[in-house]
Structure formats: C-alpha cells, structure tokens
C-alpha cells in the first residue's frame, strides 16, 4: 500500500484545534462519532487519533508513518523518530508550553539540590528522573494520573508539571522553581517513511500547507495608494524584512503598494503610513502565506 | 403594483440556509417571530415563506411571481412554471439529493418489476406512480407523512425516499434498489412574470447575485510574485480555464499574479507553484465571484 | 506616569460590543472574571470599566484621561470634557439613539406645553428639567431606576426614555410626542490630557484605528478586469466619490480595477458593471479602511 | 408471538411528552438515535414511532395492536379502530385542541354558508369536506403541507387549522369563525387485539398506569393534625368528593387527616383549614393516583 | 375596583426567584415578553414589575396596594408604608444582605471618624448620609450607577455597598470596615390598603401561603416504625420543638412516627434514631408547611 | 487534628455524580473553580478530589483517612486499605463495570492461552499481568494512555478494557473474549483510621447516609385504603420482604396501608392491588430509606 500515508493525530484536548488547523490548510476532516479514524478528503492520507503520549511509540515502530505530537512526549518516550518540522503559530498567545518544577509557596525548596529524598509527582517520570540524575539527586518520582497541581504539600513535596501561563499553578499556591523542558508541536516521521521518496514528498507538501495556514494567523494584508514622491517615505515605515508589491496605476503619479504585516503591528504602522502620505489604506484578511 | 416582485422562500429546514445564501448575496433577511413574511432590505421584493412542496402550486397560479424550490417538488406537483436557473453550490459536499427506491436488506426485490402488487410508502406519490407506470407495474402507493424509512418491512414492502448520503437508509437496514430522480434547487417563475420586462430584469439580477455568492463558496483568491523568467512555468500550474491577472511591479524582473482557484485544489497547486518559482504566495478569502 | 493613558470603557450592555470594536481595530482585550480592569495588549493603555453615566464625571476630574460614552450622558452630567471624535458605524442598522417624550396612546398630551403640573419619570433628570425650562413648563420630574416604559399611566403621566426603534415603547402602548436629544458614541478626553502632546498623539492614533475598523463594516472590496475600451463606461457605474485603483495587465487591452464600495449597494452595482463590460468580478472582505 | 403488544407512539413534536408520560407511569423509554423503535423496559411491549396522522391506518390494518393518537386523526383517516380510553391531563393548562375555520380579520365570511366557491387550505381535507357537505356547501379544499396560517388571504380564502390558545392565528391576523372538531389524545386498539384476552389485559393495565400518572399532575397531598372537636369543621373545608384518611394519634384529642386535593385550590383551602383549627399542615408531592 | 389587590413585584435579578416562590406557594406566574404586567392565575391579583428601589415610593402613594422589596430600599426612600411580614427563607444559604462600609485593603480608614472629607460612592445616598450624620462626620457622598466595588481607590476613598458573602469585595481588594444596615425581603402595604378589610384578608392569605412555601425549603418529612418500648428513646432524639405524629399500627407492639425536621440535621439525627431503635426510616420531600 | 476526617473523592467523570449522591445524602458540596478542595457543609469533613486510580495509594499511606474509588483501582494499585462498604445503586441501569479481554472480531484469539507472545494494551497493567501469570501465559503488556479500544489490530493484538454495556467495544469491531474483573464503587479506609473510634463512627454515619440515599433511588412510597375484609388479599400482592405499615382509620371498616416498593415493580403491582380491593392508591417520592 505504497500510496497511503499513515498519519497520527493527537486525540483529546488538541483534537479540535488540530482539525481546525488542517481545515485552514485546505483539508476537510470530520470525526465520525465513537470512531478514532477521522475521515479526510484526501484518499492518500489515512488518519488515526492517538494520545500525544503514545505517538512516538507508534511512529517509531512503524504502526504509523508520521504524526503530530509535542516535543515533550517524544523525549519522555525516548522514541526513535525523525522531526521533520516544528509547527509554531505566529500568534503571540500561542506560546510553547513549559514543564517546570513547582513547589508550595512556603516550601524551602529553591533548586534541584533541595529535592534529595523528596516525593515528586509528575506525568513525565522519565524526563524527571533524567533531570534529577543530571543534578546528582535521588528522589522518589511517582506517576501522577492527573490533577497533579493539587498534590503538594499533602501528597507530594514537589511536582513537575506542564504550564502555559502559570495561572493554574498560582491558583493552587504553587511556586515555579525552575524549568526542565520547553515544548512545541512537532511533525515526526518514522525513519523508514522519511526515507521513502513518495512518503517524504507527501509529508513535505502537507507540512508546507500546515505552515502556510499557521503563518497566516496573526498576519493581514495591507493595500494603499502612494504618490511617487512619497514612496520612499512610505516604504521606510514597512518592516525591513517584507518585500511589498508596487504596481503602477492609471494616474502615473501614484502607485499601489500591497504588503503583508503582523496583525499586532498594524495599529502602530497605519498612523505612520498615513503621516508618510499613504491614502486609501485598506486592511484585508488572509488565509495562507507561503514565502 | 408593478414594482414589487413576490418571491417565495422555502419554509422549514432550508429556511436558515436560504437566508444565509441571501445574506452572502448582499440581502439582509430577518424573520419576525411567528410571521411567515420575512423582512428584506429591498422594498421591491416581497418575501413569503412557503413549504417547498407547495411552491410550484402558488407560483403557477400567480399567487407568487417566483420562488426557490427543489426540482423534485416541481415534478411532483406538475406545476406550470419556468425554471430560470439551477442554483448549484460549488462545494463538493453539497450534492444533489436523490429520490430512490429502497427495500429491506433481505428483501427479494431487485428492480421495478418485483414491485408488482406490493405496498410502497412515499411522500412523492405522483412521481412514484408515473415511474411505476413507465415500467408497466401496478402497486399500492401510500402517502407517507414522514418517518418513511421506518416503515419497511412492517408497514410497507418498499419506499421511495429522498437521501443525500444514504446513511439514514443504512441505519434503518434498507438497501437502495435504484434511482427515480435527482434534484437540485431551482429558481422558478410564473410564465407571465417571466415575460414582464421589469420582473424579469429583477429576477435576473437577483439570480446573478445568488450565483455570485454560491460561486464564491469553495473558491479562494491567490496572489503571488513571479520572476518574468518563471512566468510561463508558474502559469502552467494554474487551471487552464482560469485567466489570471498579471500586473507589472516596480522591480521589472517580477510580476504580480492574481487568480481565483478551487479551495480544494489549493493544497495540490501551492507546492507546484512554489516549485515553479512563485514566491510570496498569499491566499485570501472571497465573498462573491461573477464571471 | 507620563507614558500611560487611562482609558474608560463603558461597562454593562455595551461592554462586549466595545471589546469587539477594539479587537477589529487591532487590540486584544480580555475581561478577567470579577475584575473591572480589562487586560489589553498595549502597555501604554490602562483600561477601566465604568458605567456610561459616570464616564463624564471621572474623565472631567482626571481620574481617567479619556473614555467612550454616549453624548447623552455627557450632557446629563454636564461634564467638562473635550469631545475628540464621534464614533459612527457605517452600518445602516446602527442608528443613533434618541431620547424622546412618550405618553400613553390615549393621553391628551400633544406637546411640551401639556406637561404643566404632570409627573414625568426618566433616567435623565437634568436633560428633562432643562428642556422643560426652555419651554417654560413646570412639572414633577422623578428619577426612574429602570423599567421606565411600564410607568405610564399608573406611575407617571409621561416619560423621557431612550429608544432606537421604538418597538419597546410601542409594546407598552406608548406614543412618541417629540424628541429631546439624539445621541451617538463619543470619544471624550480630559482637557488637560487633550493638551498633553504624548497623550493627544496616543488618543489620535487610537481614534484613527477605531474609525478604520468602523469604516470597514458594511464595506467590501471589488476587483474586476475591464477592456480598455469599456473602462469609462465601467467607471461611470462606480460611486462618484470613490477613487478606484486601475492597474495595467500583461494583456494590454485590459486593466484591473480595484475599488471599495458599500456592501448594500453591491447588488445594484454588480449587474451594471457586468452590463458595462466588466468581467471576472470578485468581491472580497475588508477589515479596516483609512482614507 | 402472542406475548408481545405492538404499541405505536406518535413521532415528532409529541414524542418527548409521550416518553415523559410513560416515565411517570413507571416505564423507561429511550430513543436510540436515528431509530424509530424506542427501547422500553418491558419485554412484552414493542414500541414504534409513527406519525399521529398514520396511527389509525396502521392500527386498523393490524400492523400495530394499539397506539396513542389524536381523536382528530382517527376521524380524518376514518380508521376502523376501538377507542379504549381518553387520556386527559388534569392540569388546567392542557386543554383539548380545536380544529377551527379561520379567515382574515377583514374577511366577509361569517359562517359556513359564506364558503361557497372559496379556496380552503387545511391538513384535514376529509374532515373539512364532510363538514362542508353537512352544510350543503361546495368549496375547493386544498391539502396544506404546513404553515397553513400564513395562507389567507393570498393563497386561500379560509383555512381549517388546529389551535390551542388561538395566539398563532391572532399573530397572523386571522379570526376564528366556528369550530369543526375538538380533539384529545386517545388510546386506540385494533378490534381483534381488543378482543384478545392477553392483549386486552395488557392494554388495560397500561392505561391504568398512564391515567394514574396523569391524575397526579396538578394534585398534591395534604397532611394535618386536627383536634377531635374541630374535625367536622375542618372536613367541611375539604372538597365533598374526596374521602380523607383519618388516623388516630397517641394524643387521643387529636387525629391525623391525610387527603389529596387539586394543586390550584391549595391556596384557597389552606387558610380555611387553618382557620377551622388544623395545625401542622404539610403539603407533599405525588407521582401517581389510582382511585 | 374593590376586589383587586395591586401587587408590586421586584423587577430584575430577583424576578425569577420571586416567580419561583409564588409558584411554590401555588400561584402560576408567567412573564409575557416585553411586558411588565406578569399574568397570574388569580383574577383578584394585579401584578406589576417595579424596581425594588422604587417599590416604597409607589406603595406609599397608593399606585400599588402592596409589594415585595428589601428593607434597605424602604429605608433609603423613607417611604410611608406598613411592613406586614418579613419573608425569611429557612435555608441557611439565604442569608440577609448587608450594607457595609468598605475601603481598599491598605487604606488607613478604620471607622466612621476617618471618613471626614473623603469621597464615598454608593447606591444608597440617603442611608449613607444619615449614618455619617449620626457619627458627626461630613463627607462627599456620590451616587454610584453600579460597579461600585471597582471605584476605590481611584474614583472613591470608600464605598457603601451591599454584600452577601463578601467575595466580590475581596476580589476587588476591599476590606469591610463596619456594617450600616442588614436587610431582608419584606411584604409592605399602603396604610389605607392595610386598613381595608378585604385587602387585608387577601394580603394575609397570600403571606400565609408564601411563608408556607418558604418554610418547606430546607425541611423534610421523616417516617419510621418504632417499637413501643423504644418510643421514648426515639422521641428524645427529635428536636424538642417539633410535635411528631404517632399512629398505632396493626402490630400493636409498634407505632408509626411521622415528623418534620430541618434537612441539614437529617444526617445527624438518622444515625441516632436508628441507634435508638427506629426502623424503616423514610425521608420524603415537602412543598409547604403551615404550622 | 483528631476531629477532622480526610475524605478523598474521585476527580473527573465521576465528580458530579458523587456530589449529587452526597447532596441526596444531606451534604452540600460545592466546587470552587480551579480548586481540588470541594467545600462541604460539615466542618468535620475535609474533602480532596483525587483521581480514582490514585485513591488507594493515598489512603494507604495516610495522606487521606478514607475515600471512594472503584474496586478495580484498589486491586491494580495493590493498596493496603480496608473496604468498609460497597456502594451499590438499587437502580437496574447502574450495573457494575467489567474489565474484559477484547480482540478484533476476526481475531483467532479465543482464550487466555492464545495470548502467548502477543501485544496487549491496557490501563490496568498489573491486573493484566497477574491474570496472564495465573494462566501461565507470557505476553507484552503495554500501558495505554487512553483510546485503548482503537488500538487493535494495528497497535495491539488484544486489549484489557473497562466496559459497561459493551457498545464502545462493538463500535470498534471488537469482541469480548472473557472477563478479568467486575468492579463497583467502594468506601475504603486507612487501617489506622478505621481503628480510631471517632473516625470510624464518623465514617459509619456517613456510609449510613450514603446508603440511605442510594436505597431511595428506584424506590417509591405507596399509600392506599383497604377494607378490613380485603386486607389479606391486598397484602399478598406486596413483596414478601417488605413490612407495610397498617394504620386504623375513623371508618373502622378500613385501614390505611403504607409501604415502600421498587419503582419498576409499581406498574405490575398497582393493577393487582386495585383488583384485590385497594382504593385511593397514591404513589409518592422518597429521598432516603434506612432499614
């Protein structure tokens, strides 16, 4: 079955966000109820919903050709997979998650050395053990099935827990001591699949579209009319890295400038563009950007 | 009242979708609660909600000048109306509906001839009777008020029922024997209204906008920069029927290409465009397309 | 703290609409639960939710540098503030609100003179008293805590009440006698803040973006290809005030025309453009317009 | 299969109310999605959801042994069935439905005689035709697929429509001319099934429980302590038809009175009971009453 | 119109709770949309929704005969009304509301004397001014339209605000300094109406039913069988104030004990009853209790 | 802190059902958002939400005195705890859960012996390994993070999974081979806590109330009047194990019978009671039953 790519998608809380990303990238995914095989409108893709924690295991043993999962779970499962791409959203709010060591606010623990002989609860037992070993510390690491942040001080002395904004830790009166690992979403492949030309091309095209959709989040298009005489002043306001399109108009004194900028810089740039002589400034939405 | 066009809209399950289509076409429709006269922001249109089954009857007798309904109900009611347009969505998922003959999975019925003397339940009694007559078969056709698919085998030997994906039939352990009729939405007019110049122009303009909105579903805009030397290779990747806009840029080595393509081909075309030399590829959404 | 602008936002029913407007203008506002200090992604802005009725008071005394509130409440509180901008939505449905004198349908009151000695319930006691004085009328004006429209005839002879469409008055069997005040949303500033160069620039930029977002509501972009020979006929169909962009194409017989028009005129203009020779007409959405 | 009773339940708008009634009567009904065979926790009952309009047809021909449907549809379909019970809710708000002749408010039609030669739209074509014949009137009766109340005056001169409170008719500016038929829910049986001893007993028991559950709606239990000397005065306040339970207490001066009364008379009776000497009056809820 | 009692019900946040209380008391209240005259199934009652703040004013001037409102608003408006009943829920969670003086956590204000010359924001301007006067303090009291707890320290030095649990104050970093007024719901009457025999009887009966429904909240019925020999030990476990019903049984060694107790003491009493020899203990729900 | 009982409640899907059970038992539990320490209205109870899988671990080590969890997780964690009570709902629908061995429908595996050398995915690794050992079978048991039923045949040859109705297994085309363990909810205690008289009494009282609330689910009260002459016939219809209350009435020919029966036998018993001479049969709801 050389013309099918077996793709693992993370089940659970990320499922809907992943489907949304694929939709933006141009794929229609639907989830038949009570099935873990999402339907996708590309006969060359066969999707399976798998827990992020197990993705590495099943991509490594070839049950899947490739999959999306967090860098953290690849490290935790020590899976033999190839990372083909990091999928980072351009939106500021989508920060990488961090695995941190956290203790009660009034705990005396200030660093790894203070963990000697303590009880640590965590979902990432292997990451935690390796990190302790790298600091020459011996402690009791217990697997936590969830609700880890409620455990100190009664059920654990410290925890290693994932956090994005830290608010859940704070709400449980915990203090972050230090970071163990930062993690983002990765597109990982089975080594043999990555070496197969057809599968590799299929994966590269898919990654191109996913990254194109992600790049468009937080970006907008900007069109404006500029008098030739003002053109250099207007261009000076645009971000250096961007390469705007400049097209002639019927009125030869004017040109049309068209560019892509970060959505959250629009409010700073538009007043400057207007001051520099741009007129008829129009912002429009984008759905994909491939540089 | 020569300056008013009396327009029938299908009541019931299609009501919200129709209003959405009109909104995309540039009309604001609101449904005052418990009234069947939707408000529309065009004083020359007077809308009435009517069941799709009855649209033909009331357009034919001039109670309405025109209306939207399915081809199936026009045939069933044998109404004397003019079909001005077929309104077909470009989206793949919006398939025409089919009226099919269905029987229990284990029924011996394999074709029309096997229906002789049987009981058939259906909402389209006239279509069914004509079809039986065309096969020289005599059977008992009973009008079904709904839930038709539950009737075999206890309440009927076979049914003639509408289906889109067949899943409801399958869920009731029914098997499709053959098709009687395919049906899509039509814009139908009273013959006299179609011959009145003002009404005809009004209907044609309305159809133009409805089709423009429908055409934009499933289409996207694509802009990119292309080096003159790569232009022919890039253009070769675009669908033959499309006529892309090619505009000069300040940097005379480059041109800006702007085109409209099917949303579900984007994922195939973008990798090819990039391979052919296109850069700064941007996809943007559209709301109407009038060729 | 010269680099912070203290901005008041109206609490209550307008809160979500205001946040939506800011989001369209490029600001991300979130409302932490049970806090009246919305978070905004601009460290130079400090937002506070305040009732519209009190905005004038707190901007006038410098507790806030500026704020959004209705013209009505500025008049009612007689606050010493500077109106920097009127924020009017281009959408037809967003009409200014009116404060009107209303009486029971069967009341003999026909004008201000008939109010002599009567009981009037209202939320705007000061506006009402001044208006009565301007007509030389003496009446008992009682502050109404709400549900004002239920009060006549048992609890008041007349009311001064705000209305947009009049439907709530009609539902309570009230008749509008005359208008006292029309009101739209205003951006008001403390006089000293308006004279501070940094604060003034910050406020002007903010207003520019808010107005850019509002201008884009109810507008759309329109692109089309036009044969040179048809250009003047096509341009004649476009609104006189708009200045379309006309760009050359590779095929020198054609030009690309790009313009912005009111969404609710699209349905009239597109058929005319097509009749005048335009082809490949595409409508696309906009998010900001700064002329 | 002599030990199974085939029971038809009305599909559609009454479905959930019927299931609720059965639950109150002690049966657990669940509706598997996309199936018309509800599951019930009595192996001797086999339920099928059928439109109320068709219940008579399928009970008459023995496809079903019995079913719940309206008296109106039994008359319309002229079905040969036995009415075993009328299921009337004790709650005042559950009034019987009425089929009425309705015309526009300004129509000249005042009675059946004025219908000669008119167009009448209705869902109950047979009832309407018989009623017209009984008045010696000839008119055009058209089957209405729904939204009947919107049809006058444009699509019909009059309608025969079902109504409970008349508010939908009023909202469409229609006036009730006269009543054709009052209808309540009936438990109907196939004549042969009604003559089968086992089926008849099963149906009678089911009816007993349904009526017991219905009787309890709108009733409450009332317990109180009464001094022997006050007993006759207290009993005089209770509805004559009720037979209260009077039990002795340890303190022989007192008795405990326990009775069932209509919920909406409680507020009148309790003050009187208290005035007559009752103490410790307690109201408690009931779920079934079988006299 | 001597046979109608004009009853004011508090509009706004208490509206649904009030309707629920009336329903439990045996009255069916419905709220027609956009009307302030709720429908009630007692032709002798005419209900009007009025803000709690204005209830005193309109009961005092005879626009209403009686109404439900808070003790606080009667005091604030200094209305000349008669309090016929305090309506206190037996449920522990329904505590009286308190009007308190609150200041920022780090404010130096410790008591009324520290308010000299300060700005105080409040909805109860009159209560606050009188209270300040009673302490010989002069301060600036500003009417607050709402969101009062957000005002300190920027917009006020202190506030007088209503609170039930204090959590909203705490969330805004405010500290309670002292109480000004406790308030519960009252049934108030116009003095003339209270002196009218028919109206007074009607009001007394209504209050009896409202209090009966309120008394039943948080109470349950308890039935049990007790051996004669254990009776005194069992009775000793029941609250002293309650007077249980003791009825003989067929088995003369046993009696049936039936009593009403607080729901939140059930869990303490049942183990003791069982230990004392009670068997077959059954708890059942109540809807009204009139002692 | 001898007067506090540390009680663990299962977090996650059972959380709301547990709170509901406690509420029925007379305890008010509320869940402050983002806290794992539910508030309960008994100062002698301190609640913590803990995953069911970890309950055994933390009760065994004394972090908690007691907790509710499944028998399965106690076995899996091999925790040293005392089972004080099995909490079984009387409702038929609340069946015990089963851990079963399941394989694809077309798998050749028919019993434990066929598992030799196979891959088995499960959440209960220890239970599975012990069970395999007891059959002398060696297989690869992999911990499954969830979605276990999707794994065969691609990711596992067999699974050990929990099921109630088997429908999720069936939907994934799996077949149950055999059962490993049945499990119900248990109230478990730390051995030292169970030996502490105060804690033990507190736990026993709590269990008494929980079981009283559970016993009342699916039971109802039944009152009726019976003529002395019919009493023995009526009593013969009541379940043998129940001991009805028989009380004399004023009319000495009659007695009042009061009993508790299973809700799902009501529909069989009531027709028989009526046939045996009972009258005025009334069914009423119960909230607790302690035999």
UniProtKB/TrEMBL annotation, chains A, B, C, D, E, F:
Pathway listed: Amino-acid biosynthesis; L-histidine biosynthesis; L-histidine from 5-phospho-alpha-D-ribose 1-diphosphate: step 1/9
Enzyme Commission code(s) on record: 2.4.2.17
Residue ranges of every copy of the Histidine biosynthesis HisG C-terminal domain listed in the record: 216-288
Cofactor(s) this protein requires: Mg(2+)
GO biological process, one term: L-histidine biosynthetic process
GO cellular component terms attached to this protein's record: cytoplasm
CDD domains, per database record: PBP2_HisGL3 (cd13593)
Main location: cytoplasm
Stretches assigned to the ATP phosphoribosyltransferase catalytic domain: 51-211
Superkingdom of the source species: Bacteria
Keyword Cell membrane (UniProt): no
Alphabetic keyword roster: Amino-acid biosynthesis, ATP-binding, Cytoplasm, Glycosyltransferase, Histidine biosynthesis, Magnesium, Metal-binding, Nucleotide-binding, Transferase
Family of this protein: Belongs to the ATP phosphoribosyltransferase family. Long subfamily.
HAMAP family: HisG_Long
Purpose: Catalyzes the condensation of ATP and 5-phosphoribose 1-diphosphate to form N'-(5'-phosphoribosyl)-ATP (PR-ATP). Has a crucial role in the pathway because the rate of histidine biosynthesis seems to be controlled primarily by regulation of HisG enzymatic activity.
Name this protein carries in UniProt: ATP phosphoribosyltransferase
């Amino acid at each position: 079955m050389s013309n099918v790519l077996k793709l693992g998608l993370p089940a659970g809380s990320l499922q809907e966000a992943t489907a949304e990303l694929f939709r933006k990238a141009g794929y229609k995914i639907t989830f038949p109820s009570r099935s873990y095989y999402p339907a996708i409108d590309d006969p060359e893709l066969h999707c399976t919903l798998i827990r992020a924690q197990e993705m590495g295991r099943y991509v490594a043993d070839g049950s899947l050709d490739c999959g999306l999962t967090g860098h953290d779970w690849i490290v935790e499962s020590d899976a033999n997979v190839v990372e083909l791409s990091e999928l980072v959203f351009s939106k500021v709010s989508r920060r990488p998650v961090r695995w941190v060591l956290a203790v009660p606010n009034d705990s005396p623990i200030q660093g790894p050395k203070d963990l000697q002989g303590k009880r640590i609860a965590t979902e990432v037992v292997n990451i935690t053990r390796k990190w302790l070993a790298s600091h020459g510390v011996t402690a009791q690491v217990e697997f936590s099935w969830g609700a880890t942040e409620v455990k100190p001080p009664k059920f654990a002395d410290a925890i290693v827990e994932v956090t994005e904004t830290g608010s859940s830790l704070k709400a449980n009166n915990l203090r972050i001591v230090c970071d163990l690992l930062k993690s983002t979403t990765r597109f990982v492949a089975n080594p043999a699949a990555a070496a197969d030309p057809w599968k590799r091309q299929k994966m590269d095209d898919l990654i191109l579209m996913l990254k194109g959709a992600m790049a468009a989040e937080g970006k907008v298009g900007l069109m404006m009319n500029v008098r030739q005489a003002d053109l250099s002043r207007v261009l000076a306001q645009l971000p250096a890295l961007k390469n705007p399109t400049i097209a002639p108009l019927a009125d030869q004194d004017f040109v049309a400038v068209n560019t892509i900028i970060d959505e959250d810089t629009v409010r700073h740039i538009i007043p400057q563009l207007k001051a520099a002589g741009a007129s008829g400034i129009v912002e429009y939405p984008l759905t994909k950007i491939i540089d």
